[in-house]
């Protein structure tokens, strides 16, 4: 089947199998490997992208379901060659260790800050509660998002 969607501001049309998950479409067909794939069972959250500006676990969405919608991945976070404050925060506050959970964490963080520019630590922890950091660096992730909030 043929599917058309917008990915990071550009319209994409591709031939796909109906059972293809969005995470695999992004990684394997579009080469957007910034979106990671950790479990396929909706547990880890490293696959989070935006679907119409809402963070979703892209292993829970069929690529066909994204047809006609706006998808944004971590590659689309920076704008005009300038890193997003969330990305800068993760650098400044050592928000990543191995980096595996980082793309999903950053997409959730940006969506949170767009709705709530000054979240409390509790609100940040709630927002990322569906995502796992195997390196257990939650304190620095929260600090990075707080840094982005104060820099925005
Ligand atoms: S790969 Fe999607 S939640 Fe783990
Ligand atoms: S930084 Fe390694 S899983 Fe989070």
From TrEMBL:
Q: What is its EC number?
A: 1.2.7.4
Keyword Oxidoreductase included in the entry's annotation: yes
**Which positions fall inside the 2Fe-2S ferredoxin-type domain?**
1-77
Q: Which SUPFAM superfamilies does this chain map to?
A: 2Fe-2S ferredoxin-like, CO dehydrogenase ISP C-domain like
Q: Which domain of life is it from?
A: Bacteria
Q: Name one GO molecular function term.
A: anaerobic carbon-monoxide dehydrogenase activity
Task: Tell me which PROSITE patterns the record gives.
Answer: 2FE2S_FER_2
Which residue windows are coiled coil? none
Q: Which UniProt keywords apply?
A: 2Fe-2S, Iron, Iron-sulfur, Metal-binding, Oxidoreductase
Q: What Pfam families does UniProt report for this protein, alphabetically?
A: Fer2, Fer2_2
Broad EC category: oxidoreductase
**What PANTHER family does UniProt report for this protein, alphabetically?**
OXIDOREDUCTASE WITH IRON-SULFUR SUBUNIT (PTHR44379:SF5)
Write the protein's name. Carbon-monoxide dehydrogenase small subunit
